[in-house]
Amino acid sequence: MIKSKEINFKLIFCVMILCCFGLVMQYSASSYNALKETGDSLFYVKKQLIAFAVGIVALVCATKVNTEFYKKIKWYLLVVSIVLLAIIFIPVLGVEKYGARRWLNLGFFTVQPSEFSKFGLMFFLSGYIHDHKLDKIRNLIIPLLATAIICVLIMLEPNMSITMLVGLSVLIMLICGGIKGRYLLTLALPVLVLVVILIFAEPYRVKRILAFINPWENSRDEGFQLIQSFYALSGGGVFGVGLFNSRQKYTFLPFAESDFIFSIIGEELGFVGAVLLIMLFIYVVFLGVKIAINAKNVYSSLLAVGITSVIACQTLLNVAVVTGSIPPTGLPLPFISNGGSSLVVFMYAIGVLVRIGKESNNTHLLYARHKMK
Amino acid sequence: MSKITNSNLGKRLLAVFLVIAFVFTAIIVRLAYLQIIASKNITNRAISQWTRDLPMQATRGNITDRNGVVVADTKTAYTVYVRPNSMTDVKAVAGAIASAIGKDYDYIYNKINKKGVSEITVAKKLSKEQMMAISSQNFNGVYFAEESVRYFPYGDFMSQILGFTNVDGVGQFGVEKYYDKYLKGVDGQILTQTDLVGKELPDNITGYLPSIDGMTVSLTVDFNIQSFAEKIVKDAVTDFSAKGANCIVMNPKTGEILAMAQAPTFDLNNIPRDNLDALYSMAKNSMISNVYEPGSTFKILTTAIGLEENTYPDSHRFYCNGSRIVDGKRIKCWRSIGHGSQTFAEGVCNSCNCVFMDIATKVGTTTMYSYLRKFGINEKTGVDLVGEGKGIMLNESIVKNVDLARIGFGQAVAVTPIGLCSAVSSCINGGNKITPYILNNITDSNFGVVQGNTPMVGGRVISKSTSDKVKEMLYGVVENGSGKYAYIPGYKIGGKTGTAQKYENGVIARGKYVSSFLGFMSYGNDDYLCLMTVDEPVGYVYYGSLVAGPYVGELFANIINYKGYKPQYSENDLKVLGKITPMPNLMDMSVEEAIKVLENLGIPYEVEGEGDKVIGQIPAPKADVRYNTVALVRIGS
Questions:
Q1: Which of A63, B63, B194, B522 has its C-alpha lying 20 to 30 A from B625's C-alpha?
Q2: Are the CB atoms for B295 and B514 separated by under 8 Å?
Q3: Residues with Cβ < 8 Å from B299, sequence gap 6 or more?
């Protein structure tokens, strides 16, 4: 019979490396600030360690859940995603930080519903697209409406970056789901217009774009963060200043342990370290793509595509921001940045990917045998 | 079958993956730009935010006299500052600081009792004792910083020569300004690695760029001679209620300045910066920047020109009836009854104006001016001090005989004291042009002497024989003439007095004079030239001979004493002085006995007191007395 215990250990191994590396870098980036603010240099790392432990449990659990289950509950997943995003706006439950309402207060800790919802949407879409072919325009209505509701709610927080991430991931889902080229083009135009309007609706976004175009002119305010990121990366040079030797982590670079951790990595480990890390991410994405291609059916395949796109797009957006390639938005680097809910959700998603791979190994062999007959 | 196939999805997914891989590659290119290509440029911008630098003040170099006596030093001073947020007992701190620095308690309390200020500088330039008085009480939030500040061990000594720096330590006057670049040294830096708000990093590596101390500037000034000069200018101002007095002593052969003193003066350790006008007038070195009509001291130059040009044969006799008529104008000699018939040398001795009018008018404007230019009257001497002025001569084309006659005796011409000294030096040093200077050498503690100085003896102005003749005539002035108050038996001293009326707004100011004396002394290879001017002496006595002459005599006497020059009496001196004999011991003698002893020795005496026994005597027994010394015998019972 079939070997049913084909677990993709390559993927798990890579993710574990990313997480552990992330913990080390978070310690380096945050210890000075943590000591100054809380008196405990391990403050951020300790929180992340707990999240990491929870994440491992989540990953293992995810591998135990049959993917067909998500298909069955896809409508519930969508509703929960929307409800979680909506209840942030209930005063007691929502927490406001840095001028945005992104967190949900669960008493002893806070979570970001958008982290859950972005995957929730992918889970829903893979199920829906599997059932409804995308070659009919009316079959596009529900996926687009679901995407629109989620995006609007996230925009209201506001969180432009996750909105963009969701948009990009849905785009990939639609492409892989077989959307026709002309539908895509008719869709793209209004979305682009909307994005431009949204940018100009908020003065701070315009400022950020200006700061992105010439950060040196606004080095004191809007361009500050970007310039500090440049200082970190450039300071690192080819081989870096050495692990734990960052200069920029000493309060110069804001969010050094979360959104801008890649800058600190570039500073301490240099161009070589930064490229190696990017390679590792590409490899993880590659493994995800492989799992999607080899998935047992179109549904599983789309689910793997959704998860992989989120990982790939978020990594791309984060690194593009810290290198000044796109205007700054706050988005954590998957597995590496400090942030508990993000880590747990991502690890669960990896668990799902592993499960898809595991399920496909069976069918794939069956399929191969079938062909040989 | 219209359902999307697995392979269709796979193709599209691969395409998406390739796009993602491409975007990743683009980002890697961007990273390469930031981390490799532009790395240096961007990092250079970052360096300034990573470190804070504290300047480390270089210790200013010392200024010494020619023998190494330190006249401008540095000492450590302390700045006390407080951090209000860390202070626990503001009242106690205010009390301690107020009493230590002698300021009002309320003033200090109000100054330091401020919230929301991170640091307040309370007082600067505290002495070590004042600092200790505060720091010994171990207050919280009180801190001290060390700095080196200029300190002048002798206070109001050489004030105009040394000058001073501004509060930032930049030379503003005198040597402090002229040699500032050598004295100031190079400030160092302490580079500290900090975080964004300037907090020092936990294990920061402190970059330390040591300061380089300033060099020592040694002056040609002799501390002792300067002291003598300081004394006589102060005395002159006091004795004659004069507006001011100054005195230059220099070596006429080399141009080395040995002393430059000016009164009134000010304490360099306590510079009156509140009254800038007064400060400026006192800080200005009048000996190099003021021009004045020299009067008779200028006759030395006319004498030299007259002799050099052989204007009159040696046998020529000048006749003075009290005035000369030049161009139809009567110009008076200072002695209204006249000097009668006199030789050139006698004329110089008498300082007879008519003699010099005759010489000047006979020499003519062209020759006269060519000599005065050679003497450098119309230009700066080039002395290495700040703010030198130059003499004023009438434009040659408009000089009429009447002007020329007056220039001959030192009117209608203006000079700086240093300019006159320089010109007269040429007349008595063998005829060479010299440039006055004050720098002996500059020494660096690591490299030794980095800049020496040698006399700049320029071209010939007059012949050596003329110079020798001028010298002889001027010796005569001191021995027999108007300079006799500067005379010291046994030494070769020459000189010339001068009294000039002051002009105010182009009109002669009645009763206002500048009295001066220009004297010189030679002993072996040592030569001294001294110009003393007293500005507006008050009272009936204003003649240079009476006002300035005795001070120069006193100065030379002090130099003789300090250098241990032995007298060489001329026959004339001995006649005047008599022989030297040890003073006999008269103590306990009877009055008659004592008088008999003194009369036998030929020592004049005075008796003081009542009684029959000698109870005191001046000079003391065995002291050298001359026969013309009057011994004082005190008697009692």
A1: B522
A2: yes
A3: B348, B351, B356, B408, B409, B410, B496
CATH number belonging to domain B226-563: 3.40.710.10
Closest by CA to B119, choosing from B162, B60, B79, is B79
* Local confidence band at A7 (pLDDT 50, 70, 90 cut-offs): confident
Q: Measure in Å the smallest separation between the Cα of B117 and chain A Cα atoms.
A: 22
Residues in chain A closer than 8 A to B3 (CB atoms): 133, 298
- Minimum distance, in Å, between the CA of residue B187 and any CA atom of chain A: 27
Q: Collect all residues with Cβ–Cβ distance below 8 Å to A26 and sequence separation of at least 6.
A: A44, A45, A48, A257, A261, A336, A337, A338
Which one of A248, A275, A293 has the shortest CB-CB distance to B28? A275
Q: Is A252 on the interface with B (CB under 8 A)?
A: yes
Q: Chain A, 285-314: which have a CB under 8 Å from a chain B CB?
A: 285-286, 289, 292-293, 295, 297-298, 301-302, 305, 309, 312-313
pLDDT tens string A291-344: 999 888 889 999 999 999 999 999 999 999 999 888 777 889 999 999 888 999
Give domain B55-158+188-219's CATH number out of 3.40.50.200, 3.40.930.10, 3.90.1310.10, 3.30.420.140.
3.90.1310.10
Nearest CA in chain B to A173: B13
Task: Determine, for residues A293 and B3 on separate chains, whether the beta-carbon distance falls below 8 Å.
Answer: no
B13–A282 C-beta distance less than 8 A? no
Please give the distance of CA A33 from its chain centroid, rounded to a whole number.
25
**Within an 8 Å CB–CB cutoff, is residue A135 touching chain B?**
yes
Within 8 A by CB and 6+ apart from B604, the residues are B598, B627, B628, B629, B630, B631
Strand B318-320 and strand B257-263: the pairing is unpaired
pLDDT surpasses 50 at A103: yes
B296 catalytic per annotation: yes
Reported pTM: 0.64
What CATH number was assigned to the domain covering residues B578-636? 3.30.10.20
pLDDT per position as a tens digit, B516-557: 899 999 888 899 999 999 988 887 666 656 788 889 988 998
Question: Which of B8-12, B50-54, B222-226, B594-598 holds the top average pLDDT?
Answer: B222-226
Across the interface, of A133, A319, A323, the residue whose CB is closest to B3 is: A133
How close is the nearest chain B Cα to the Cα of A172, in Å?
A: 7
Under DSSP, is residue B518 helix (H, G, I), strand (E, B) or coil? strand
